[in-house]
Amino acid sequence: MRGTIFSRLRSGATKLLRDHRGNALMLTAAAVVPVIGIVGSAVDIGRAYMTQLRLQQACDAGVLAGRRFMGGGTYGNDAKAEASKMFGFNYPEGLHGSEDVRFESTLAEGEVSVVQGTAAARLPTSLMYIFGFGEFDLSVACKAKMEIAHTDVVLVLDVTGSMKDQIPELKDASNDFLDTMLKTTGDGLLRLGVVPYSTTVNVGGVLKPEWLSEQLTIPSRTVEVKTETKPNCTRNCTTTTYNYTYENRTFTVGSPAVGANVTFPAISKTGTNRTVKWGGCIIERQTVAFGKDSAAPEDALDMDINKVPDDEASRWKLFMPGAGY
User: Fold this and answer.
1) CA–CA gap between residue 139 and residue 317 (Å, rounded)
2) Residue 139, phi then psi, degrees to nearest 5
């Protein structure tokens, strides 16, 4: 009996091994699982790669928009809203089937010109969930910094009398602008210049004495005092009159230091000398009239910024408003 059973099993196995019918079906069934795994991983990983790339691009665009919108070193709610709007524009809702999309942007700690952000999304798989991989958790980081290349900046500041009440705000705004520029230059070269907009400029303290003229010609006055005594008079017999002649007068002022006093003869109300303090302001050098469509002529010395004073025409004159009439 025993031999018969084993003989039958051996005979059946031999027939099965020799019979090739239906082998393709079994091989195909066995290959379905790994094929699905290979194709599914390629599809889902490709989707995840494209989604994360788009997430990174949207994050970069968001912080760039936020950094451009901010001003004065403050990253407020308006700038954050602008960054979020730009992120949403570049990463529409449900892109590639993603869910739970998040984006945040803040000003980098200790920086006034760097905006940093993070973005995250959850991407459900299309085929890999069969093997227990249900989703991809995607996240990226981004940063935007404003940097300026080689730049020349000139501030023209209105410091005339009408701006008297606004001068403190002008100083604060200029300092804020300077701080912002210095922190955004990076490796670039930044050159700053300041030009005060006024009728005069106080630079006497930085000019060499030989660059200043010792003569000053200005519209002023001469006072002639006449005293008359009435004949046969016993009371209030003396009468004093003052005659004023207004004309251009030339005074010798020497080479005073800033803050020194200069004496101008016979210009006071009673014909006596008047002492005027020089505050350091100067009058522009010799100039001539020329049209807007023509170049400045050689004798327009006020337009020649490279001219070193070497004669009376090229020297600066002292600005002494107390002696002018």
Assistant:
1) 69
2) -150, 145
